[in-house]
Specification:
By secondary structure, this protein is an alpha/beta fold. It has ten helices and five strands; from the N terminus they run βαβαβαβαβαααααα. It folds into two domains: 123 residues, Rossmann fold (3-Layer(aba) Sandwich), CATH 3.40.50; 73 residues, Orthogonal Bundle (Arc Repressor Mutant, subunit A), CATH 1.10.10.10.
Length: 219
């Protein structure tokens, strides 16, 4: 299967560089480009890609709003946020529905790997990295009331898994911790996401923090 990608960045040279890397893979095809958020919506609607790489900072409609609108489409593609550093814009992008983030100076192999990974429904960054990023910006944000009642729909086992996900544990690590098979963990994670109407693991980590599954001393 060929993975269809749209590139969104206000710098043409950046788009050209990424296109050259992705088009050489054989299984990834760049099917559209855009220089701002407004053009990105049109490009995504027209090309119907599987993955969109979006620069977080652009004139006009920025990458955060573009991500929110792209993820709100009837059949939304996965979104990877592009950034020059890990700042509050990255967290806002994740909250808007992005499946992860990449630094613009990332290695070519990591760029290709990220595109392939998000198509499967996984997050780009390692769970522990995503966890640290979310912890950092949630701790700096205004305190929000905890909403543990949101998790009442989960079974005890599912809540246990969500807690481990929030702590940055991968599926393999969770399987080892709970003496379960990898397939069983994957099934549980899928059910958790479906019950809580979450897009992916990144959204699950954010919700876990907002529901108080990680104590302040654990951050």
């Amino acid at each position: 299967m060929t993975i269809r990608v749209v590139l969104v960045d206000d710098q043409a040279l950046v788009r050209t560089g990424f296109r050259m890397i992705l088009d050489e893979t054989g299984d990834i095809e760049v099917v559209g480009e855009a220089g701002d958020g407004t053009a990105a919506i049109a490009a995504v609607t027209r090309a119907k890609p599987d993955v969109v790489l979006v620069d977080v900072r652009m004139p006009g409609m920025d990458g955060i709003e573009a991500t929110r609108r792209i993820r709100g489409l009837p059949t939304p593609p996965r979104v990877i946020i592009l950034t020059i550093d890990l700042d509050e814009y990255v967290f806002a992008g994740l909250h808007a529905g992005a499946s992860g983030f990449l630094l613009k100076d990332t290695l070519a192999a990591d760029l290709v790997s990220a595109v392939r990974v998000v198509v499967t429904g996984e997050a780009v960054a390692a769970p522990s990295v995503t966890r640290r990023l979310i912890a950092h910006f949630l701790s700096a944000a205004p305190t929000r009331p905890k909403q543990p009642e949101r998790l009442a729909i989960l079974t005890a086992r599912e809540r246990e898994l969500l807690t481990l996900i929030t702590h940055g544990r991968s599926n393999a690590e969770i399987a080892a911790d709970l003496h379960l098979s990898g397939g069983t963990v994957k099934t549980h994670v899928g059910r958790i996401l479906a019950k809580l109407e979450l897009r992916d693991r990144v959204q699950a980590v954010i919700l876990g923090y907002e529901c108080g599954l990680v104590a302040d001393g654990d951050r």
